[in-house]
Specification:
Elements lengths: L1 H48 L2 H27 L13 H29 L9 H28 L2 H33 L2 H4 L1 H28 L6 H12 L6 E10 L2 E10 L5 H18 L3 E10 L9
Parallel strand pairs: 2-3
Antiparallel strand pairs: 1-2
Helix pairs in contact: 1-2, 1-4, 2-3, 2-5, 2-7, 3-5, 3-7, 4-5, 5-7
Amino acid sequence: MFRGFFCTLGVSIMTAFGKRFDEAERVARIGIYANTGLAILKGVVGYWTGSRALIAEAANSASDVVGSFAVLFGLKIAKRPPDADHPYGYGKAETIAAIIVSVLIAIVGVEVASNAIQGLMEPIRKSPGWWAVGAAVVSVIVKEILFRYTIVLGKKLDSPAILANAWDHRSDVFSTLAAIIGIVGSIIGEWLQIGWLLHLDAWAGLGVALFVIYTAYRLAKENIHISLDHVWHEAEVAELLETVQSVDGVLHINDLRAREHGYYVIVDLKVAVDPHITVEEGHLIGKQVKSVLLSEHPQVTDVMVHINPYNPDDLVKD
């Protein structure tokens, strides 16, 4: 019996979200290809020109490749249908993937900061040159395009992992802009023979590192909050309440909780019905409530309805 229930639930979830996963996996693969290319470009040019800021950027892009693989892995697990051990599905795998991405970003940030500090302690006599600026500009353009594409898709699919990836792209845009400022400042310092300006490349590398670490903290904080069964607040459940109240036979809603389970929502609610109707009639009202919530709110994938007898003198949560 339970096997049949989980299979039925799994089919309904997979039918509703099959296309979602295809699109999400596509954007993760695009991120892998783009970041691999950028990591190679910035790494080669950074090593050739001696730009610590660009080498820091190359390490950042390399971490993005690993992060994209983590997102892809999380998506593949998240799309598994519910089973006896995981009756609510594997939706939280995406959130876990997003947390993994944030941890990887933080590790790279610390390593890049260490490298930049080392550069600040060494004498610098030559700037990285304009090739380093060109590679950084290419990175900014590619990353901004990736951000705009990924953020739109992440919001459309309501995917925490894809959204984490999108903001990682945007953080790369700002960090690379900082790197450009540092490299150009270093070039100017070489022209004018101003020693402290030559160190701007290393300072930019440190700025990139601090920005990366902050991005990792923000992403981790947000996704840890989601992973702890975040429950929708009053404003967020207003539409759900309105839907339930529209069902014939529902006299009062005693309680309604909508909790996020990764990319989808599970609703638990208690509704009050006429105490003089039959058990079967009350059961049918509960089935109608579930059906309406599932059909009118695509993000809701499971509903548990408890039926209470209506008592006008006792309208409190049971």
